[in-house]
Sequence to fold (504 residues):
Amino acid sequence: MKCILNDELIDENTLPSDFTALRYLREKHGLTGTKEGCASGDCGACTLLVGALEDGELTYSTLNSCITPMQSLAGKHIVSVEYLSKSGELHPAQQAMVASHGSQCGFCTPGFVLSLAGLYENKQGSEQAIDREAVCDAISGNLCRCTGYRPIIEAGLSMTKEPMIKVQESKETPFIELMSKNDSIKTQLESLQTEPHNSSNYLQPTDLEQLAHALTSNPEAVLIAGGTDLMLENTQRYRDFDTLIDVSRVTELKHLHIGETSLTIGSSVTYSELEDFSKTLYPQVNALLSRIASRQIRNRGTIGGNVANASPIADLPPLLLAFDADIQLLKHDGSTRVVNIADFYQGYKQTQLAADEMIASFELSLDKLAQFHRFYKVSKRMEDDISSVMLAVRFEEKNGTLTDVRLAFGGMAATPIRGLKAEAALTGKVINDEQALSQAIEALRSELTPMSDMRASAKYRLDMACNLIRKAWLELNGTDVVTFSGHAVTDSILSTGSEASTHA
Fold:
């Protein structure tokens, strides 16, 4: 496994398959600026910047090194906080934090700095302005217990205004160029593209043929994509993985395109990739994706992983239920079968996946994507939090009458569920029929028996579910609903459907 760590070429062939990037930096190289806070990808103290070549361009993204296998970063440029001031000059993100008094105890500061540095690099590289929304998104996966976030946000907004300053005398060439424009790094990464990424215990196939061979040769191996959930088995439950097969580079599982009648989403497409894709095409989908986990998690977590984990609080299964999505399952021998999302879940953490199967892709009807839809996620925090209640709504309307209704819930029961009786109460009714709405809410109260846990009581969940249906009904009828969030809300944002549809 070869990669670039800061400005050093690394050739490492002795790592266990599940040895994390965090451990590698701290234990093998003494780069202790990267911290372990939670070991579960929640706090961001372990944030790293990782550069990769995409169509000849070098782009950087953040990730949680505490749950990222080091070997998954083969062929990439890994940037720790020590690299930012390697020539005796502060990076604009570091200087902005100093000027804005954005650090107190300092434990979380390196993670914040790298998240802001990634934002700076990408925005400057594309000559885009840095606004408050961009800063809040960049640091959404970085938690601070001491300072509060105001000075950190101010630091992010001031990065382009702060000159770089020297922290020590240095004869080295000042490190002032954008990392994405560093020709030396790009040249090294280009040479690494021809190098094999596989090791004896960590396989990274790039097509289905290689994947089939890896599975045949390693029948006991465990599949991994983003690893944002699987690696918790290692860091939280101390499970060791002998051999991992990484499917994140398999081309056929990365497809994301619009066909004649459907949208195809490959199982290894990340949240961030789908987020970028949906920004203008499907703004409501985009808004929901911005509420899933943190930027670090969205950069690695995959659509297939979110669905296959069968978590009751996963945010994408209700969306797929609302659109009546089909799932293509791929067997290790190359054969496939299709299962509708409504039939996929069979109980808590139980799915139709056989031992020799994996999710290959999802198919969503373009006709249904064009119909009225909304997604509402209720959680204690705006970013980086788990749903207390999730509702995905789709209304098909013809001549003022509802011909098809989907009300799909997450965070309510052992599996994602639909409000079938409530759907029936609305189907065939005109869109402004208040009596029909009341009947639907009454039906929902009779058919749902939500769970109670640390996030919410059953009563809260049921009341919220009913209120969210009313909210969707109001939006369907063109009423602007007052919405409160941690982000700036523009006038009539609900009618434009660009952001607040996910804020309950």
Summary: Residues 254-502 form a domain with the Uridine Diphospho-n-acetylenolpyruvylglucosamine Reductase; domain 3 fold (CATH 3.30.465.10).
